[in-house]
Amino acid sequence: MEEDPKSYEDAINMAANHIRRFPLVEVQGVPLMSMIAEKWSLISAFNPDPSDLLISTYPKAGTTWTQEIIDLLLHNGDAEVCKRAPTVERIPFLEIQAPPPIPSGLELLTIMKPPRVIKTHLPIQLVPEGFWKNKCKVIYVARNAKDNLVSYYHFDRMNKTQPEPGTWDEYIQKFMKGNLGWGSWYDHVKGYWKEREKRNILYLFFEDMKENPRREVERIMRYLDLSVSEDVIEKIVQLTSFKVMKDNPMANYTFIPKVVFDHSVSAFMRKGEVGDWINHFTPAQSQMFDEDYVRQMADVDMPFRTSL
């Protein structure tokens, strides 16, 4: 009989032989990791407390950054309290499933008392109905398509549980067609955008957060009906700068063993910049992508910026 894991890291090491690149399986037309698809009925039935807060993003759009800002706001900027556990345990990932004994997002949530902060990458149509019925607050973060694509590509290279990314050229095609985990970026950002007023969603842009982090931290604070001092806001801005977070072992995912996240391939927190796409796209790729983008985003007018 194996001992129970003492930590999340311990659990991953115990499950090491079962870690692999899981195939994608469609759930209501959205490709999700097979382990998520297998447990879909449990995930979709999740019923949050009205006091729970949902942070939603397309993968690699500033999720961890936003989680850290919110955790610090809720704890009045106390950096030590926010190092009580890694991000994955402080703010469970709703739909994530993994081989035992790694706890699923649902398992982590059942042992936490509300109010909880919950992370998801689900497009709006797959978010469990309970979040809307219970009028939970939802914060959505969107990042411009080109930078998001670059970040996701490097993540899929280092993340050993998602399908092989293939070549850069192939990955651009997959992104444009929505053939990646959690589906189409275009549908994802538009889905929440169109519903933001009706469902009281705080819709943030990664580029705005980079341009003026203080302003966006204050927006989040007001949305959460919190009030922290000017000094604390300043402290939160500093603690959630890319450089500080990259060196914070409770936020930079270095605690995840190499069998899952191979940081020697690419760091989980790689650059966190606006405009890095220019170092990846050839002029021909950029033109093709831009033409397709205009087609896919024709039904909305969204203020995305690809440079600052």
UniProtKB/TrEMBL annotation:
Main location group: cytoplasm
Keywords: Catecholamine metabolism, Cytoplasm, Transferase
GO terms for biological process, alphabetical: catecholamine metabolic process; xenobiotic metabolic process
Organism domain of life: Eukaryota
Compartments, as annotated in UniProt: Cytoplasm
Residue ranges of domain Sulfotransferase in the record: 50-300
Pfam families: Sulfotransfer_1
Keyword Protein biosynthesis found: no
Annotated Gene Ontology cellular component terms: cytoplasm
Membership in a protein family: Belongs to the sulfotransferase 1 family.
PANTHER family per record: SULFOTRANSFERASE SULT (PTHR11783)
Protein name per the record: Sulfotransferase
Organism per entry: Astyanax mexicanus (Blind cave fish)
